[in-house]
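Task: complex structure prediction.
Instruction: return structure tokens for all chains below.
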Amino acid sequence: MNGIERLKENLNPQQLEAVTETEGYVRVIAGAGSGKTKALTQRYAYIVEALGINTSNILCVTFTNKAAQEMRKRVKRLVGVNSDLSYITTYHGFCVRVLREDINKIAYPKNFIIMDVEDQKTVLRQVYIELGLTSKILTFKQVLRYISKQKSSQEYLQYILESKKKETDNEIEKVFIRYLEKQQRNFALDFDDLLNFALYIFLNNLDVLEKWQKRLHYIQVDETQDSSQKQFMLIEMLSQYHKNLFVVGDPDQTIYEWRGAKPEILVDFDTQFPDSKTIIMNQNYRSTPNILSLGNHIIKNNKIRVDKDMFTQNAEGVDVVHFHGQNDYEEGLWVANEIKRLVAEENDTYSDFAILYRANHVSRSIEQSLIRENIPYSVFGGIRFFERKEIKDVLAYLRLIEFEDDFSFLRVVNTPSRGLGKKFIENVAKIAEKEDTSLYTALKDNLSQKEINRKGAIAFVDLIEKYKKAKTAYIISDLVKAIMDESGLTAYYRSDGDTDRLDNIKELQNSIILLETQDDEPINLMEYLQEIALYTDMDIDDDRNDRVKLMTIHTSKGLEFPYVFLCGFTEGVLPSAMSIKERRAKAIEEERRLTYVAITRAEKAFYMTESEGYNFSSGTSKYPSRFLFEISDNYYVSKGELSQEIIKAAKEQLRLDATRQLIQKKFEVGDIVNHQIWNQGKVIAVNEAKGEYQIEFLETGKIKPITFEFKGLTKIEDPSEATGEERLGPEPIAASEIEEKDTGNVAKPEQDTQSPLPHENNKGSSTKPKENDKNNLWSRLKELWS
Ligand SMILES: Nc1ncnc2c1ncn2[C@@H]1O[C@H](COP(=O)(O)OP(=O)(O)OP(=O)(O)O)[C@@H](O)[C@H]1O
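Output:
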């Protein structure tokens, strides 16, 4: 068999068509586990082997770096090791390639700097100092979101690329402008810039666009459902010369709509390119029929989708299992025991198991059980719970209070910053060595010595001494809270703006409360630290590859495992309460797709687990996910005791939530209203997706978000009677100008932004993009960016 035949081997008719249909615009709608990645890889190899095209003329865009690496690895096996596979890359990776070659067109050096989030925060820290800002006023997270939001429009490019100046009194805008200035001075580009700069260069330098268009004879896009409009516009532009564009994706697996993914690109591809061909791949090779039916059954509840039932010829396999625990300890333990049982009875290895969750903090109870049961595991794309910085910081304070050990001392003496730097630590260490004592004792006993007598050091010792004396008077959960607040750790993490860190600390407190309520005898600090040492001093010297893998559902995208446990299948976690609050109905559909992605990762068995207790993020009792109630009983078997009362309470909670979400807006932009506390105000924006108004109040001059369901708001029918109306704000402004997040209600010119770009009539003949093409592109880009 020759190489080409081998590339066609073992493909079903649809896959074969996808591989060999190399010319023109082709769309593949492929369900989970239907061999998308396989088809994409074979197709790439086919273009190289059967058509003789050089790999440097094929662009293959993947969604993540990991997917690009995996694809390169597979292609290498098919086409040999000597090919240049650097055009198998992400959107960002490709933009970097363009910029490294052509950024001089906008007078930037080719060795420009790419900033990651940490770099962005470093710049912000500097800006905060210059503007005398504190994170109490604005968190980094707010600013970073604002920056990203601003960069979804093209306007900011005028300030850095066209030297336009801007004055403002608005605090967050001031930060943004300073941030841009620093970026420009250092020729530093953040992730949002990469795509914007590349588009800017193409649109202003048609010779450059043409060069890239001619270079890229074939373009393939993976996970197209998660591409944003701007990303796809780049691809569309590049494909205009050779017109060979192959897109593949699954609208049911769109999980990035919250950050701008437009599944419509894939769904409406045939309208945008009327001559395009569509191939549907709906045979699943991965999962058992039980798992697949569960997936089909859940995703059918989504209203916005293309209906496509997946089928499989795989053998029946085992039942899907739902486990309900009385608390998260029981949930974790059950998962650990089930893994142990399967490894012992079925000859499976630990690496056959994946544990997936919606939110990082869910991993805590699972990790504790795995450690207790001696099951090796690793956290994919993340850090083990007890190794996370914020958890180590809190525990180090507790350990220092109990043991006065040097490790804990070094970790927290300057966290948060007390101005006790390297030199100070060296001085303390010298004393400790001389006196043959611990660092903490050396400091405490010599505070009056000149080289260590600092205000921060005195405060630190006072704090530790205070809690050394008071520790028996506190239960540990309260001790943690008191230390977090007094040491400044709470403020420090809040200023970081990373809610994940605060959630993790809350989860730690949650676990302590659970421990305290379970035991009759209150545990003391020493006992707690001994218990916790089991989880923190992990001996990870075992076989590195044979481990259970823990990861978020987002990270699991594109992967497959024989056994999958979806843990923390709890209302408020999956679906995420935060997402629902932000994007209501749209969020529910995306959360359901996340559940679908989790289910369809499984090959042999799928488990969903949740437990009772307290949900600290919503401040309510924990109930099973609403998605569990959407599944008919015959799709799974139940384990654990889920009482009728819990089911009733959960359903009642859902009913209340649904009623809340159905509440429609009562006021329009411009309406004058009366608030029961703040009196008169003017509605200056309405965000229907979020269910809230932005109201500017007359007396305070402040703008506040008020929910649709709030009853203490009435309309003032005759605004002329409203005193001081002129102070109620200028012209109405769009919600998009205030909101940091996707609002969903901001009218976007969907129709126009998706209309096809002008096509050349003679393929490959008239190659130069015409001036009106440029105008058209600009106007579309402006609409898109407006
Ligand atoms: N024609 C085929 N014959 C046998 N096995 C196949 C075939 N096509 C794909 N597979 C297998 O099916 C599984 C799923 O394939 P792949 O990972 O390419 O799917 P996918 O569509 O990318 O999945 P997802 O979108 O859910 O991540 C893989 O184990 C793959 O080897």
